[in-house]
Structures are given as C-alpha cells and as structure tokens.
Amino acid sequence: MSSVAKRLQPFGTTIFSEMTALAVKHNAVNLAQGFPDFDGPDLAKNAAKEAIDAGHSQYARMFGVPKLNAAIAGAFSKRLANPADPDAHITITSGCTEALPATFLGLINPGDEVILFEPFYDSYRACVALAGAIPRFITLRPDSTGRFGFDEAELRGAFTDRTRAILVNTPHNPTGKVFTRAELELIASLCQKHNAIAITDEVYEHLTYEPTLPHISLASLPGMWERTVTLSSVGKSFSLTGWKIGWGIAPPNLTAGVRAAHQFLTFATATPLQFGAAAVIANPGPIVEQYRALFRRNRDVLAKALTDLGFKAFPSDGTYFIMADHSAVSARLGASDDRDLCQKMIERCGVAAIPPSVFYENREHGKPFVRFAYCKKAETIDLAVQRLATLAK
Fold first, then answer.
1. For the chain, which residues make up each domain, given as ranges?
2. Which of 65, 89, 143, 313 could bond 274 through an S-S bridge, CB–CB 3.0 to 4.6 Å?
3. Are residues 276 and 52 in contact, defined by beta-carbon separation less than 8 angstroms?
C-alpha cells in the first residue's frame, strides 16, 4: 500500500533529480538540470555575509526583509503605470517553487479550473493537484519557423464559467519561447472577459536574446494589474539558484491569498540571503548582460552542433534551454523515445539532457523532443559538443 497521498502519487520523483543522478553516476556533462556551473555575483554574496556578521540570523518579516521588498518594487515598477508598493504588493517566498503553491493554495478552490500551457514546468501540474483544481491544457507546437505557439481557437475554448486562473510562463521553460505582445493581449482579453486571474512565472525575465521579442509582463497590460500575480526569483537571472529567493507581486486582494498560504508553508525565507538578493537587484550592474552574452554564445554553439548531428534545433529566444526534435538521431541510434534517447546519450557519450514528455499531460506530444540546458561555462558547452559528436560515429 502506497504511503504517498493520492493527489501526489501520479508525479513520482521529479525528472530533474532522476537525470542528475544518472549524470553523476556516469560522470556525464549535465545539460539536464537548469543550473549554472559557476557562481553568482560577489556583490550578492558579500552582502549576505555582511548580513550574517551584522546578526541578521533570526526570522525575517513574513512577507520579506524591507530592503528586498523595496528593491523588487523599484525594479518592477518600471514596467507599470503605477509603482508597486513594497509592503502591500510584494511577498518574498522560498524561491518561485514555493511562490507557486502559495499562490495556488491561497487563491484557487477545489473544483476551479486552471488553464496550463504544455509543455509545462513539472511543479505546475502538482500545484494544481495540491489545490484540488481541474487542469485544462493548451499545447504549444512549433510553427513553420520552429517557434512554439498555440491555437487561438483552442485557447478561447479552454475558458469556461469555471475558469479561475491561467498560468503563463514567459520566457517559457522548456521551449525557449517568449510570448509576444499579441499573444499576451489575447490572454488578457480572455481573462477580463471570463473574470479569471492570471498567474505568471517570469523567472527568466532578464534572459531574452532577440530585440524583437522582449519580455513583457502580463501585469503591465491595460486591465491586468488588478487580476495578475507575477512570480519570479533571483535564481535564474543572477545565477543564484541555490539561494531560493523568490517573490510574488500582486494587488492587495490577491496578495492576501498568497500570504495566507505562504505563512503556513515556510512563513519566512533565509534572512541573510534576502539581504544579498536585495543588493544585486538594486544594483545589478553589467552582470545580467554578461550572463546573457555567455548564454547567447552557448545557445548558438550548441544549436549548430545539434543541427550538424541531425537534430532539429528549435529557436530559443529566452530562458537557457533549447528544445530539439530527435527523430532522425533516435532512428540512427535505435532509441524508442525521448527517455530512451536521453539514457543512451548518457551512456554512449556522457551528456545528460531532459526527456520533455514528462512536461506534457499527453506524453505522446513530447516524445519527439529533447531539452538541453546551456546555462554553463563556455568550456562546459564545448566539452558537451565534443562528446555529442561521437554520436555521429
């Protein structure tokens, strides 16, 4: 008899833990889990150390250290018609991974419908289950340019009188998609028509690479501030994934729900790390642009290598992931699907990737694809490319 609650039984162990364990076992280059293999900025680290030395070692204020709330409000307010209030609108969480269940548990009731785009970050589906909600799925598919998009009629049909929320992740993991203004305006119009809230995961907000596809916060569109919860974190943009400093930004009525759950999930997040995050958010300097330049270089090198090997690499306009169709390569290697191919790549050439079928409700939709992370040192990507080249032999 399983000891795991029924609501969580379908999800098992996260694919990131599974593939990283295999990568360690086979001494593979880990392009599976999305974390950099280099450290974050000294400014953040030194500020955290100073906070420890200054005695900031007890519980933080439940909704965040004032310096961090103020830094986030200052940065986010540049996108809004009216400035965000540090105390009324911002809640600091233990990474965006905690902000997600806090938002779902605080604002979604059992039986409510929630619209998800697939492929989705795997915790989204679990959050829906934790809230007792009913998911409705819209599949993102590559168009003639290779960029992923959705069918407008399908999205319109997903909204019903039971729709409570839609979750939008832009820039999008795992596809590398950056939602366009037109796509976001359509989503905004449907939210307003059906009186639904929007939950946006914007953890890759600073990691976009094409000037014609900038990141746009849904909350900045007309009529959306009052119905949007914007989630993000310091981890991706500043290469501090292990710090787990995230946040939710929303008007007071929605913030009340986020905080109602947050106070019973973690209550507060690591105090000295909040001071470190505040320092780098308030004064980012050139670091984000330096990371962006590195990731753009890595993306281009990896995409060319994959293409040369017979993969069909799709454009990655944001995040630090690249999706590719592996059909031709799997036919050559005798791999049956994405999971089998990832196993073979680890064993044959020592490179780990993610089988993205786990990010789909209908896993058949994801089996032709494989996802690689390029948030690594240039030499790490070069080593992975060298190893991948052995698949052609």
1. 9-40+287-392, 43-282
2. 65
3. no
Q: Which residue, 256, 293, 318, 290, is CA-closest to 42?
A: 290
Contact by Cβ (8 Å): 187, 155:
yes
Both tokens assigned to 118: 């697939």
Strands 228-233 and 246-249: antiparallel
**Class of the domain covering 43-282:** alpha beta
Per-residue pLDDT of the chain in tens (393 residues, 90 and over written 9): 568 998 988 888 888 888 888 888 989 999 998 899 999 999 999 999 999 999 999 999 999 999 999 999 999 999 998 899 999 999 999 999 999 999 999 999 999 999 999 999 999 999 999 999 999 999 999 999 999 999 999 999 999 999 999 999 999 999 999 999 999 999 999 999 999 999 999 999 999 999 999 999 999 999 999 999 999 999 999 999 999 999 999 999 999 999 999 999 999 999 999 999 999 999 999 999 999 999 999 999 999 999 999 999 999 999 999 999 999 999 999 999 999 999 999 999 999 999 999 999 999 999 999 999 999 999 999 999 999 999 987
The C-alpha angle 183, 189, 193, rounded to 5 degrees, equals 145
Count CA within 13 A, CB hemisphere, residue 390: 12
Residues 198, 126, 299, 330, CA torsion sign:
negative
Q: Which residue has the tokens 């989630």?
A: 231
- Residue pointed to by tokens 């390569």: 329
Q: Which structure tokens are listed for 150?
A: 């959705």
Residue type, 161: D
Kindly give, in sequence order, each residue whose CB lies less than 8 Å from that of residue 356, ignoring residues fewer than 6 positions away: 119, 174, 323, 338, 366, 369, 370, 371
Give the β-pairing of 134-139 and 29-30: unpaired
Helical (H) or strand (E) element with 350: none
Q: For domain 9-40+287-392, which architecture applies?
A: Alpha-Beta Complex (3.90)
The one-character DSSP state at 303 is H
Q: Which residue is associated with the tokens 């069918």?
A: 151
